[in-house]
Amino acid sequence: MDASKAITGLAALAHDTRLAVFRLLVQRGPDGLPAGVIAQNLGLPPSSLTFHLQQLANAGLVSQRRVSRQIIYATDFSAMNALMAYLTENCCGGIASFVPTRNSSPDDSSLPTNSQPTNSQPNEGKSDETLACACSRR
Questions:
Q1: Residue 17: phi, psi to the nearest 5?
Q2: Which fold has domain 3-75?
Q3: pTM score, two decimals?
Q4: Helices in the chain by DSSP H: which ranges?
């Protein structure tokens, strides 16, 4: 990932509504959610949600697909992981490995603790864990 793509992704997430939408989609996993369900869960008017979803899609962080009359939005986990890798590639001079650590933030208490990874990436799709550099726990 280059700096331009990272900036676009971070800019898309730098809004409270878009961040909430993205986190909801991460929690849901690769199946995604219909736009109407997202709007209902977050209490957003459909026109406002459409704008925010388009910003996330334009940044490459979510994908959309049509199923019958619904548009289903889902997190692009490879893009999310690429952004995380870009942000952390030089952590600790590149000598420390990343390990999952339990996120104990009170804001995340509503997230499930039994999420299963969706592929060979050990942390992909897990909303109750974050990547933390081993040197940050010294």
A1: -70, -45
A2: Arc Repressor Mutant, subunit A (1.10.10)
A3: 0.71
A4: 3-13, 16-28, 35-42, 46-58, 77-88
Q: Which residue type is seen at 83? A: L
> Phi, psi at residue 14, to the nearest 5°?
-85, 40
Q: What is the pLDDT of residues 31-71, one digit of tens each?
A: 999 999 999 999 999 999 999 999 999 999 999 999 999 99
**114 contact partners, CB below 8 Å, separation of at least 6:** none
Confidence at residue 122, expressed as pLDDT on a 0 to 100 scale: 39
For residues 75 and 30, the answer to whether their CB atoms sit within 8 Å is: yes
- Residue appearing with tokens 């999952």: 100
Compute the mean pLDDT over every residue in the chain, rounded to the nearest whole number. 79
Residues of the chain with CATH 1.10.10.10: 3-75
